[in-house]
Backbone:
């Protein structure tokens, strides 16, 4: 059986496969390079970069939960100058397809980041982090205003022809409304979703396990929640939607692909198993081949046929795109 063609398109960007390393969970791609060859991934999404370096939030900023983890890193990063001078060339030398995640407290800060990085040949696309739950300014709450999102994307759109992916928070009343606003502003794709705001209580001390009180919950616990938000976005817009949230295995990734996500990000799994992203690439390829399909689209079509033939369970979810 020949290997299936796993290529997918996100706007003008072609990816070798639909499995991406999620921002903030894969370092800058070089720390894990001895375990995972970043060139074999669909793309590496780098840790969100801000104009100035950030030390992040005070400890404790990580807490385990029953089926996941809370983090309150607070966008710790090296800042724009070092990101551009050191991190991008290093990751590019490893052959990775680089999606740069940018974060800002205002539309102007995002414009500065994009204006500076847009001309970097090694950067294939940008993910705009509109969804960090762990910062006081410019975090998920600030970016839940649909008009602000649309205007900001419209101004960013003028700065680059490279794909712009808007990463959304799940902690909103209607993610579909924000998805539509991003599409109207000119986003090429969406990422659904970032972490969920969460709290962990230490009964021995009567304190939160996170210094900033709440953190963002990620990992297995959020997969069904993330799938529901992702599905809502897929239904609401025509642009591609990238799934994120609780995908640990190839089967998890296939669930996102089945509901119409164009690609899937692997995040927390990399902390548990550093090789997780590569395992998912290989597992997705094996599952698609085992189903007798030669591409992601053909596999989805075969699933659609299976849904039509089956009368058990709820409605068929397999997206037609
Ligand atoms: C420690 C940690 C740091 C993260 N840092 C970022 C970040 O800098 N930018 C961002 O957009 N998302 C960040 N995320 C969110 C992940 O990219 C991902 O969207 C989220 O964790 C859900 O996916 P998962 O359950 O597979 O981890 C971070 C997540 C974790 C656990």
Residues:
């Amino acid at each position: 059986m020949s290997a299936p063609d796993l290529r997918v398109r996100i706007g003008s960007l072609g990816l070798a496969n639909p499995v991406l390393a999620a921002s903030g969970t894969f370092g800058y791609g070089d720390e894990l390079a001895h375990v995972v060859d970043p060139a074999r991934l669909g793309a590496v999404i780098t840790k969100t970069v801000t104009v100035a370096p950030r030390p992040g939030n005070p400890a404790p900023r990580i807490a385990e939960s029953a089926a996941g983890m809370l983090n309150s890193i607070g966008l710790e990063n090296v800042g724009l100058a070092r990101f551009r001078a050191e991190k991008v060339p290093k990751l590019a030398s490893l052959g990775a397809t680089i999606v740069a995640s940018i974060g800002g407290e205002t539309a102007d800060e995002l414009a500065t980041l994009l204006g500076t990085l847009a001309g970097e040949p090694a950067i294939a696309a940008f993910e705009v982090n509109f969804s960090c739950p762990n910062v006081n300014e410019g975090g998920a709450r600030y970016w839940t205003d649909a008009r602000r999102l649309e205007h900001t994307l419209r101004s960013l759109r003028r700065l680059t022809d490279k794909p712009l992916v808007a990463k959304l928070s799940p902690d909103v009343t209607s993610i579909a409304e924000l998805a539509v606003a991003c599409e109207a502003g000119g986003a090429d794709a969406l990422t659904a979703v970032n972490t969920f705001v969460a709290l962990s209580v230490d009964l021995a001390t009567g304190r939160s396990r996170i210094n900033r009180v709440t953190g963002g919950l990620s990992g297995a616990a959020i997969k069904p929640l993330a799938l529901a938000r992702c599905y809502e976005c897929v239904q609401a817009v025509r642009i591609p939607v990238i799934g994120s949230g609780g995908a640990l295995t190839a089967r998890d990734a296939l669930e996102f692909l089945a509901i119409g996500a164009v690609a899937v990000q692997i995040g927390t799994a990399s902390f548990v198993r550093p090789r997780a992203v590569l395992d998912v690439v290989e597992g997705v390829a094996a599952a698609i081949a085992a189903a007798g399909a030669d591409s992601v689209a053909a596999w989805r079509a075969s699933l659609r046929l299976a849904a039509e033939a089956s009368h058990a369970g709820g409605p068929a979810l397999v997206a037609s795109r």
Summary: The chain has nine helices and 16 strands.
